[in-house]
Amino acid sequence: MGRSAFVGIAVSVALLAFSYKFILKPHQHNKPLKLFTPQELALYNGTDQSLPIFLGILGSVFDVTKGKSHYGVGGSYNHFAGRDASRAFVSGNFTGDALTDTLHGLSSSEVKSVVEWRDFYVRTYKFLGWLVGRYYDDQGQPTKHLKAAEAKAARGAQLLEKQKSEEEKVPSCNSKWSQDEGGEVWCDSGYPRLMQRPVEIALTGKASKRCVCLKEEELENPGLEVYEECDYLAKACKV
Ligand code: HEM
User: Fold this and answer.
1) Is-above-0.70 flag for pTM?
2) What is the Cα–Cα distance from 93 to 99, expressed in whole angstroms?
């Protein structure tokens, strides 16, 4: 082999090694690193001090050993170790059946929050591979449940943006609260009204209202409430 061919091959090998380590993202779906079964993952729940601690979220498995104070035995978040308890990241319920990977019935903003937790683990800990089950099949391919969760989270993000831009169109009331005087809302310009947040139900599953300042000609618009015991044209209302 000629010298230049040898150098060419050596450079190619070095480039390949570099791109494998630094360019190919471990999160891409077509190249499984390692597949875990739930039983195997459970071994790494912090009980055996000689083993590292692993955690699953949305079927992605991370080495969280460096967060031993949180995830080790006696740590506040030990229940996340050795399993995928995706739902508990938003429910805050770390007991019994609540430690489950199903997100069934959660709102789009809650599902978005679980996906953001997964992003946190991607940023903070070493990604190891996938848990075979709800979110990845035995080939390491994402299941319809993962795709549905990611789509719902994306919809949550969209709705949140929409809510923000809708809210920017109508000014919010000023508000203050004190132990002695209780709460008060007021408008520098316009009149305070309670207004249903338009996309809130789709986003969180619950209705919610905010105080807005409206011009006199807007006061007959639908979906508005006058504060209790507040005059129709009052500038300030006790709440
Ligand atoms: C839904 C409820 C909650 C969930 C799912 C949750 C989850 C977590 C997780 C996973 C960590 C570890 C992050 C890491 O690996 O570094 C963490 C850390 C922490 N959490 Fe929570 N948490 C919740 C509520 C709370 C509440 C209510 C408080 C305070 C009263 C709190 C205070 C903390 C503190 C102080 C840390 C440690 C930060 C550090 O030392 O780096 N958490 N939380």
Assistant:
1) yes
2) 7
